Amino acid sequence: MININLSGVVKFVKTSNLDTAEINSLHTKIKSHSMGGWMEMPFDIHEEQIDRINKTADRFRGQSEYIVVTGAGGSSLGARMLIDALGKPDSPVILYAGDNLSAIRISRLLQKISNHDFSVVVSSKSGTTLETLLAFRTLYSLLQKKYGDRAPEHIAVVTEDRRTALRNFALEAGAYIFTIPENVGGRYSVFTPAGLLPAACADVDITRLITGAVKQEKTGFAAAAQFASARNSLYNAGYKKEIFATFEPDAENFGAWWRQLFGESEGKEGGGLFPSTVTYTGDLHSMGQYIQEGPRDLYETILMFDDVKTDYPVAPSVFPDGLSALESRSFAEINRLAQRAVIEAHLAGGAPAAEITAPTFDEYGFGMTLQFFSQSCAASCFLRGVDPFYQPGVEAYKKRVKQSLGT
Ligand code: PA5
Hints:
Elements: E1 3-5, H1 7-10, H2 20-32, H3 41-44, H4 47-63, E2 66-70, H5 77-86, E3 93-97, H6 103-113, E4 118-124, H7 130-147, E5 155-160, H8 165-173, E6 176-180, H9 193-201, H10 206-219, H11 221-236, E7 241-246, H12 252-266, E8 274-279, H13 288-293, E9 298-307, H14 331-348, E10 353-360, H15 363-384, H16 392-404
Parallel strand pairs: 2-3, 2-4, 4-5, 5-6, 7-8, 7-9, 9-10
Antiparallel strand pairs: 1-10
Helix pairs in contact: 2-11, 2-15, 4-9, 5-9, 5-12, 10-15, 11-15, 12-15
The structure holds 5-phosphoarabinonic acid.
């Protein structure tokens, strides 16, 4: 179970606990929305699909020194988060493209991969995102130069099940094709092939991931809804900034995924919490001052893990460094003690804290946590009266950029 501890919130604001009827009504609202398909996604993804994803990933792993995951926003951030946190070290090196227009970035990427075997997973639900399509063109010409007629064996296209130009290309070329269901939006698509295929390329156990999400969907919605309600109480009481914090640097990109999820779902109609992220303890040395003593309009949502499964003993001292009290301790233990002390310091400084604890730092724990935050994000939006599943602002700038480029 995901455990939520709101004692560091109720010190500052009065939160209203939702009753069972309110929780059930929220659940139904999300599920019955035309874009609510992600909620059932962990149940809907069948063994044959998982098998096909794993087989394609195995093929790519066998034939590639590099795998270039090409996509933007929701078609990239979930995959990246899973790979960074849970990818196995003996996998091909995973590189990223398709979420920027930087000449420096694409040139460096090409320099890196040109003389090596590589494959490309290109994800775009709409099949129209400028950055993704431009990067893919470039990678495709290199694949053609390298592998000629066999280039499509190195390409997997993840897109919507309607005849977009990208899907047509994949069909004609004979590339691998995977589908993002129409009723699942980009930032909610981590349990579709957009998240699962790249993750499997890094040897992430996607079956365990889905098992965790199923467990959360079956048993955890009420906790996610109560967290959503507490977030809204904070917002209404003037806490307009939410800072996602983790003490696990390998989960740093969990923050990037979380920021997009909440930012794009909630930032609408002139309102919405401003989401930002920090990774501790590193960012205590950059943002710690602001959080401790800056404007009192922020609170922290802290993601912790009960069992990180990995520990490391503190080495014997090499010189009198003043840390002899830590001699018999371990890194995991010290990190846990530091978490508590930091939360207490920030509470004393006037920054509320919501603690979210996942059972394990592994596929199962991540599956649960991703579903938990998706549920709480959608629930928060419905409580505030905005639709979580549209992003007219994103569409507006995409259109303007394309117009300005004459495309
Ligand atoms: O969450 C969203 O809908 C967006 O962030 C999209 O994922 C992003 O703009 C990329 O779109 P697409 O997958 O159509 O290329």
